[in-house]
Amino acid sequence: MKTRDIVSCGMLIGVAMLAGYIEQTFPINMAVPGIKLGLANSATIIALSVLGKKEAILITELRIILTTFMFGKLFAMIFSITGSVLSLLVMLLLKKTNKFSNVGISVSGAVMHNVGQIIAAALLLHTKAIIYYLPVLFLSGIIAGIIIGIISQIIIDRVNVFQNRSSE
User: Fold this and answer.
1) Who has greater pLDDT, 50 or 1?
2) CA 78 and chain centroid, separation
3) Do the beta carbons of residue 116 and residue 86 sit within 8 Å?
4) At what angle do helices 3-25 and 53-71 cross, to 10 degrees?
5) C-alpha to C-alpha distance for 19 and 41, rounded to whole angstroms
6) Which residue windows are coiled coil (predicted)?
């Protein structure tokens, strides 16, 4: 890894952790409990586009582990890891096809993150009834994915302009 990539990974982990902290501290009051915008996921989308798949995986998993240690929600880490693994797999596959925009990848990642969390909840709670929550989570995942995808694309465009200027 180049020094610039290591620094970029560190910055994205820090920004993702800060975004997650802000989201926990000032939750967006939705009508349905547990729904979040997922601001921290923008770091994964940015890393996939600017750095690469290994870095995106590293950033996502380190963010989850470090956030768990900082905020002390070990049980929540099970849901985060389950959701992020499924989300990352889908986003990596879609990115590899070069047929999806970052917004499309973000929406797919958000929806699959919710699916992963529902699977974890169904297994931990020994009930299939929680699956009825999926339509609400699909809708919230689509909306959040669009917002995070747009924000991420704006940042990616600005990073690319900055990188092009610095390489001249």
Assistant:
1) 50
2) 15
3) yes
4) 40
5) 9
6) none
Query: What is the extent of the structural domain holding 140?
Result: 3-166
- Give the separation between CA 83 and CA 98, rounded to whole angstroms: 23
Ramachandran sector of residue 35 (left: φ over 0; alpha: ψ -120 to 50; beta: rest): beta
| Count of other CB atoms within 10 angstroms of residue 60 | 27
pLDDT(43) > 80:
yes
pLDDT number for residue 167: 59
Q: What is the pLDDT of residues 75-114, one digit of tens each?
A: 788 888 999 999 999 999 999 999 999 999 999 999 999 9
Task: Please answer whether residues 59 and 13 qualify as being in contact, where contact means their C-beta atoms are separated by less than 8 angstroms.
Answer: yes
Output b/e per residue, 99-112; b: 16+ Cβ within 10 A.
ebebbbbbbbbbbb
Q: How many residues does the chain have?
A: 168
CA distances, 44 to each of 4, 133, 136, 138, 165 (Å)? 17, 25, 24, 20, 24
Number of domains in the chain: 1
Q: Which helix (H) or strand (E) holds 46?
A: helix 41-50
Q: In this structure, what DSSP letter does residue 29 have?
A: -
pLDDT reported for residue 165: 60
